[in-house]
Amino acid sequence: MAVPRKCQRHFCGIADKLGRRISFNTWSNSIFRVMSDKDLKFNYGDAVRITGDAQAKFHPREPGSICGYRTIETEDQALTSGFSIQTVLFLVEFGSGFTIEIPEVFLERLGNE
Questions:
Q1: Rounded to whole angstroms, how far apart are CA atoms 87 and 90?
Q2: Beta pairing class for 47-50 and 63-71
Q3: Domain 5-109 classified CATH 1.10.150?
């Protein structure tokens, strides 16, 4: 599986901020295992396209790769993101290296559909 470079920098940077240095292989195996253990529509590394009905800020119809996810769990997170509690946001990397969190409802799988 090809791993987007921006994803590598993004999550290894998070580990640095937490005071832990980890190799990308360690991180990659960990995030893949965590995402695989969840009942998610998409998994780490999946090729996706943003749906045509997504807001312009989500780059409709552009392809990207899944780099991670989070679920909105608190009212503060809901207010900040503009989405309701329990909304699943996927971190998507585009070919340019730009990443953005996009709600699951605006994503569709590319490839083996």
A1: 10
A2: antiparallel
A3: no
pLDDT on residue 61: 96
In whole angstroms, what is the distance from residue 46 CA to residue 34 CA?
A: 15
Q: What is the pLDDT of residues 47-94, one digit of tens each?
A: 999 999 999 999 999 999 998 888 888 999 889 888 999 888 899 999
Q: What pLDDT, in 10s, does the model give residues 8-19?
A: 555 444 444 444
- Which residues, including other chains, have CB under 8 Å from residue 90's CB and lie 6 or more apart? 42, 48, 66, 68, 69, 101, 102, 103, 104, 107
